[in-house]
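R.M. (postdoc): so does anyone remember the format we settled on? I'll just put the structure tokens first.
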């Protein structure tokens, strides 16, 4: 992207959005013990410090910085790593050890002094049955493993990024299998900025984490966006996009200037859900959810689009979505961009003004109408690395992808996006237009919605509870499965527990309609011991194979047997009352929280009675001021049990 110098003003732009969201209270800190998972440890062979080391030439940080300044001015892809070309195999590098069971283990430690991160590119990687390849940090805490199921038709393997200046390779080969090895490491990429960079060296101060409330209305689109690397050294943003066949084909839209071509498309590694765990952190994201490899389908430099097909459909457990699109001639009157600035966690930016059609890097309207110009961002901004990110209109549909611009925190300068409407017919061939790939059925549709076509309502509020042996209330829930697409669909509903009954077999959901279904507790629930029992309910759409998981909690017995009733009146203006039952007499504490997890009112601790109890909130804060209109969480804690009820204050 084209970038001027950056401001370092520590202030953050104030939010202009007042989105009502149903957010949970702040999560409790959890300590997780990371157990090293190395093949050396598993096979119980000589320690890693006895294996061979290959050292990468030291990074020249001054040269890299100067080159990056030039690259930024030329609008080239954001570079975060320096490649070292090698030809390392199990024959000319590393060392071997033999395990007690006859398994042979090849190991190579790679050292890149001063590097922030490392990733690898294998020009040949065909693993035979029984072979296992692992790459990991020296301590083994972060480990990625591959086997024969990861072999690609193009024969390459590009690994995810690991932190630090050292990386370890391990290849486990069954007894007598060394003659079947087909493995050659061709690139060692040493990261010098971006991924795993200290927070104070990251991007602009006005960036907005997608986990913040500003992103609440864009959760589905956020799940469609990923950050990716090319050849282990360049970084851009892209978006998984739907096609009219709605078959789950993993089409990924990004920018032409990110330099994906037929030769390097196999090196693309996409990272999903790389985002901050808390609002304002701009850090702490995980690179664990990744997939490697792609094929270039089409690109067109005048509108700066590239469309690639990923080697696999993203794992359903990752919750990745397929974004919708709008190729109509209408110009958006307000837009949103979801992107990865520099190599930061996912961010969201807003412009509340209309876009203009222009040529690339021109403010003359309409020019050649290949681009949409965003005059300036009202919330957030874009940066190098945001290139290729989708521009969404108010209907939550893609209208273009980021080519470049001059936007930065604290300025009012524009960005330009290649128009999807102009890319639709592009250069007139299958390799230079979107039409053949996004509308393979030739429907002529102008717009297409985001794909997970089935929406489920009614599970969020189902929280059955009761004493050991029952009865449990409510013992059933009616859910509504809706299908906003233009074709009929089917849903398969499953659960991971035996005490919950779900509908059997595929359930038809009419086009543009919905189907009501009942979920109920089975008789086996009466045999459950005291405690909280979680059930996962999976709703899978049968055409695309996409699925969503929902969790319910059955609370059985316990000292308090806390069962809450409905809050009333709700919404309320002057007061709200919440009734609840306790299974035994013990103290309870009542508090009120806002949607950002901040305490609004501590209603105090009182002695509860066995049976019916009631707490009242008069709408005032701890300071005695009336709380602003909006959604609040009324929390009851009794013993080791807790209940939360959402209430809406209206003044």
């Amino acid at each position: 992207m084209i970038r001027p110098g950056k401001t370092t003003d520590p202030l953050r732009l104030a939010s202009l959005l007042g989105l009502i969201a149903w957010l949970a209270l702040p999560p409790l800190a959890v300590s997780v013990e990371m157990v090293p998972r190395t093949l050396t440890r598993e096979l119980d062979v000589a320690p890693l410090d006895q294996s061979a080391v290959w050292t990468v030439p030291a990074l020249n940080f001054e040269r890299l910085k100067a080159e990056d300044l030039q690259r930024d001015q030329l609008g080239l892809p954001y570079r975060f790593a320096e490649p070292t070309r090698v030809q390392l195999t199990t024959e000319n590098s590393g060392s071997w050890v033999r395990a007690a069971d006859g398994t042979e283990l090849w190991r190579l430690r790679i050292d890149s002094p001063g590097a922030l991160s490392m990733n690898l590119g294998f020009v040949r990687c065909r693993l035979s049955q029984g072979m296992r390849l692992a790459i990991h940090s020296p301590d083994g805490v972060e480990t990625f493993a591959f086997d024969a199921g990861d072999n690609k038709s193009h024969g390459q393997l590009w690994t995810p990024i690991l932190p630090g200046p050292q990386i370890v390779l391990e290849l486990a080969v069954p007894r007598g299998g060394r003659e079947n090895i087909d493995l050659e490491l061709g690139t060692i990429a040493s990261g010098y900025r971006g991924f795993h960079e200290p927070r104070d060296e990251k991007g602009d101060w006005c960036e907005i984490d997608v986990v913040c409330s500003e992103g609440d209305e864009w959760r589905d689109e956020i799940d469609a966006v990923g950050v990716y690397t090319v050849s282990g050294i360049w970084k851009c943003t892209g978006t998984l996009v739907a096609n009219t066949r709605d078959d789950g084909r993993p089409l990924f839209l990004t920018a032409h200037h990110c330099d994906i071509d037929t030769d390097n498309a196999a090196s693309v590694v996409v990272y999903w859900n790389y985002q901050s765990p808390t609002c304002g952190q701009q850090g702490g994201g995980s690179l664990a959810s990744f997939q490697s490899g792609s094929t270039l389908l089409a690109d067109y430099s005048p509108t700066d689009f590239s469309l690639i097909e990923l080697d696999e459909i993203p794992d359903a457990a990752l919750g990745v979505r397929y974004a919708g699109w709008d190729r109509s001639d209408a110009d958006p009157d307000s837009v949103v961009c979801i992107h990865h600035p520099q190599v930061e966690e996912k961010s969201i930016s807003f412009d509340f003004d209309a876009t203009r059609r222009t040529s690339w890097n021109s403010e003359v309207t309409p020019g050649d109408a290949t681009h949409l110009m965003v005059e300036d961002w009202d919330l957030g901004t874009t940066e190098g690395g945001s290139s290729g990110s989708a521009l969404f209109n108010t209907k939550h549909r893609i209208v273009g992808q980021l080519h470049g611009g001059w936007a930065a925190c604290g300025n009012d300068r524009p960005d330009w996006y290649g128009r999807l409407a102009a890319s639709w017919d592009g250069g007139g061939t299958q390799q230079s237009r979107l039409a053949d790939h996004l509308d393979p059925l030739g429907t002529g549709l102008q717009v297409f919605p985001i794909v997970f076509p089935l929406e489920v309502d009614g599970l969020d509020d189902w929280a059955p509870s009761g004493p050991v042996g029952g009865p449990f209330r409510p013992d059933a829930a009616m859910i509504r499965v809706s299908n906003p697409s233009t074709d009929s669909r089917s849903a398969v509903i499953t659960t991971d527990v035996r005490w919950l009954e779900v509908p059997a077999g595929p359930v038809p959901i009419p086009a543009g309609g919905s189907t009501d279904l009942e979920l109920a507790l089975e008789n086996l629930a009466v045999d459950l011991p005291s405690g909280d029992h979680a059930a996962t309910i999976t709703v899978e759409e049968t055409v695309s194979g996409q699925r969503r998981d929902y969790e319910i909690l059955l609370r059985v017995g316990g000292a308090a047997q806390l069962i809450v009733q409905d809050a009333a009146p709700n919404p309320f203006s002057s007061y709200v009352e919440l009734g609840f039952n306790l299974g035994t007499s013990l103290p309870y504490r009542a508090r009120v929280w806002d949607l950002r997890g901040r305490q609004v009112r501590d209603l105090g601790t009182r002695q509860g009675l066995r049976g019916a109890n009631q707490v009242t909130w008069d709408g005032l804060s701890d300071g005695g001021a009336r709380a602003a209109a909006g959604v609040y969480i009324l929390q009851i804690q009794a013993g080791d049990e807790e209940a939360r009820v959402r209430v809406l204050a209206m003044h």
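R.M.: ...and that's the designed sequence above, right after the tokens. Also worth knowing: The chain has four domains: 39-191, 203-448, 455-556, 563-649. The helical segments are 39-43, 61-73, 219-222, 420-425, 435-438.
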